[in-house]
Description:
141 residues, mainly beta, three-stranded antiparallel beta sheet
Amino acid sequence: MSSNRPYLLRAIYDWISDNNLTPYMLVDATRQGVRVPPHVIKNGQVVLNLAMRAVANLDLGNEWISFQARFSGVSHSIQIPVPAVLALYAQENGQGMMFPADEEEGGEPPTDTPPSPPEPEPPSGDGDKPKRGGSHLRVVK
């Protein structure tokens, strides 16, 4: 029988979002296949904000959770194997669900490959700085 974890994650995510709360996901960053920026990992874990305003292209799949997110202004492609999720809860009141760290996968990554991230936008040619045009504001006297 397949794991119920991805189904519970989707249901809890919808429940939290439907109540206008902020879904946070606690991830075991030591699990094989977890792809997050190293500077956000604390004590082998990472807490990720999954609110629609904080992520793009969120996919809560049966094997992988993937999305785009910004950390310190830099866009990153995040990929999490579903067994690495330890909890999904509302930031405002802590309601949600914790999951056991040891599931039948036993630390092995899912058998399929993670989804390929969407192609990043080509740089504008000015390095990392966005091109700035003239101000759209006028001085009114």
